[in-house]
UniProtKB/TrEMBL annotation:
The active site is at D71 (proton acceptor). Keywords: Hydrolase, Magnesium, Metal-binding, Nucleotide metabolism, Nucleotide-binding. The lineage of its organism: Bacteria, Bacillati, Bacillota, Bacilli, Bacillales. This is dITP/XTP pyrophosphatase. It comes from Halobacillus amylolyticus. Substrate binds at T8, K9, N10, A11, G12, K13, S72, F154, G155, Y156, D157, K177, H182, R183. Binds 1 Mg(2+) ion per subunit. Homodimer. InterPro entries: dITP/XTP_pyrophosphatase, ITPase-like_fam, RdgB/HAM1. It holds the Pfam family Ham1p_like.
Length: 198
């Protein structure tokens, strides 16, 4: 079994990478699996790609191994793309999913249904010692619901209704989410690299 480190401390992301990488015979190790304490990485880039690169290169340099990182978030059109790269800390430094989605709903309180369009964005960076880092991006278009619904997924999934669906992402099974998500679309773009990994 091939192994890949994902430079994330987000358990929801880890589970999705595990599920989606299993078909490439890749087992996933995340920052949650290291015995030593790993400091939080400062994500001070101006784009998803910059932040994914910072995370991947920090861990690749520290452990001298190939690393994949994910920087992702929700862009809401009626809020000019907010929360965007600030999605994790939208309602405060404690990165609370529930408070984040409640804040998004509050901001959209007076916004009619047809103007509630949004998309999930995921930039994936691949960093390897001695190689140039590269990034890819996947997106998932949808709308913001009026109320949270569903127990699956993580983050903003309870308020995000993907295009062509009448359920929130949190009401999708993990297999359903992993076939349409921004993360899936990003991973498809590194599929060849994943297959060639030794
Ligand atoms: O599929 C998703 N379904 C719902 N919400 C999502 C998704 N994907 C990203 N999101 C939200 C969660 C968080 O508010 C932000 C990611 O922030 P982001 O900095 O990339 O991740 P993080 O800080 O949780 O973990 P880490 O940096 O260790 O990978 O976007
Ligand atoms: Mg983060």
């Amino acid at each position: 079994m091939k192994q890949l480190v994902i430079a994330t401390k987000n358990a929801g992301k880890v589970e999705e990478f595990r599920d989606m990488f299993s078909k490439y015979q890749i087992s996933v190790k995340s920052l949650l699996d290291f015995d030593q304490e790993i400091d939080d990485i400062v994500e001070d880039g101006e784009t998803f790609e910059e932040n994914a690169t910072i995370k991947a290169e920090t861990i690749a340099a520290e452990f001298e191994i190939p690393v994949v990182a994910d920087d992702s978030g929700l862009e809401i059109d009626a809020l000019d793309g907010a929360p965007g790269i600030y999605s994790a800390r939208y309602a405060g430094e404690d990165k609370n999913d529930q408070r984040n989605l409640e804040k998004a709903l509050r901001e959209l309180n007076n916004v009619p249904d047809q103007k509630r369009t949004a998309r999930f964005v995921c930039a994936v960076a691949v960093a390897r010692p001695g190689h140039e880092t590269f990034t890819v991006r996947g997106t998932c278009e949808g709308t913001i619901a009026r109320h949270p619904k569903g127990e699956g997924g993580f983050g903003y999934d309870p308020i995000f209704v993907p295009l062509h669906s009448d359920r929130t992402m949190a009401e999708h099974t993990s297999d359903e989410k992993n076939s349409i998500s921004h993360r899936k679309h990003a991973i498809l773009k590194i599929e060849e690299w994943l297959q060639d990994l030794s």
